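Re-run with default settings, no changes from the original entry. Doing this only to confirm the output is reproducible before filing.
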Amino acid sequence: MTPCARVDLRAMHPSPVPTSPSPSPSPSPRAPGLDLLRAIAIGVVMLYHLSSHGIDVSGPGRHGWMGVDLFFVLSGYLIGWPVLRDLAAGRTPDWAGFVAGRALRILPAYLAVLALYLALPAWCEAGTMPPAWQFLTFTMNVLPDHLTQRAYSHAWSLCVEEHFYLLFPLAAWLLARRGRMPGVLATSAGAALLFGAGMLLRDWEWRHAIAPHLAPGGDAARAVAGYVGRIYSPTWTRVDGLLAGVLLAALRAFRPAWWTRVLSHGWVLLGAGLALLVAATRVDVLGRGGAAFLYPLVALGCACLLLGALSPRTPLGCRALQGIRVLARLAFSLYLTHRQVVAWLDGVAGDVAANAPFTAFVLYNGASLAVAALLYVAVERPGLRMRRGMARRLPDALAG
C-alpha cells in the first residue's frame, strides 16, 4: 500500500460482542480464543491508526486495517450461529430479542460518542464530518466524501454491521418461512455466488473509478478517495468477512459432526490463517488484483484463525491469557474513541511522537484505554446490563 493510501484508509471498527451466548458448552461467545481475537483485532487497528501520528510499528502499522475484517468474521459467526442454530432445530428465533439486544449493545456508546463529536467539534481528529443524519441512519458509509469529511469516518464499518444485523436475519427468516432453509452446502453455494459477485463488482468499480486516476498524469488523492468511497466503505463491497463468518455458523448448525472434525485440526488452521494473511500483505491494495481478490483472501485467513482459536486442540481454544478479556471487553469503546484521543494528544503533547516515540506510544495507548474504560463504565456497561435484564424478561412477556 502506498503511504498516501495507508493514511487515508485508517477507518476500522470492532464488531460488537455477541447478543447471547451459545447454549452448547463449547465454544461460547466468551471463549478464550474469541476474546483473544477481539483483543488482537483492536490492537492492530490502533497500531495502524498510530502510524498516522509518527509511531509506525512494523507490520500492524501498514496492514492493521485487516483487524476490521477479523471483526467482520467474528460478527458473522457470532450473529449467524444463534439464528441458524434455531432454524436448523426447527425453532423460531427470538427476533424481538435479537433486534432489541443489538440496539442496546451498539447504540448507547455509539450515540454518546456522536454527541461528543457534535458538541465538541474541536476534538475531532479531522476538520469536518458528514452530517449527523447519515450517522443516525447508518448511511455514512454509502455516501462518503473522503476528501473533505473525515471525522468519525471509522463509523463506516459499524454501518456495514448494522446493515448485516437487519438483512441477514430477514433473509434467514424468509427462507425458513418458505420451507427452503438451506443446509451448509446450499449456504456455501449461495455464499460463493455472493463472493463472486463482490469480486466482479469491485473489479468494475476499480476500472471505472480508480484506474483513471492511477494513470500517468492522474490524481493520486482522488484515486485513494475513489477507492475508499467505491470499494473500501460500501456495504455491498465489504461483505466477505461477514459471509465467511456466516459460513462457519452454518457449518456448526447444520453439520455438527463436520464442525467437530474441522476443529480437530486447530494447529493446521492457525498456520493456514497466518499464511493467508501474510500473503495478503503482499497484495497491492490499490491495484486491480487487490480490489478484486484481497478481501476474500483476508476473510479466508481470518476464518481459519477463528477456527483455530476455537479448537480445543490449541491453547487458544481453552486457556485465557492475563488481561485479554479486559481488552476484549473494551474493544468497542476503544474503537469509538481512540482516534479522537490520539488527535487531542497530538495537539497538547507537541512533538513527543517525533522526539520520544516510546513515550508517545505508552501515552497514546494509555490515554486511549483510560477514555475507553470511562465510556464502558458510564455508558456501554449499563446498556449491557439492560440487555441482560431484557433477555430474562422477554421470554415471559412473549409467552403472555
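Confidence is low (pLDDT under 50) at residues 1-27, 395-400. The chain is about 70% helix and 0% strand.
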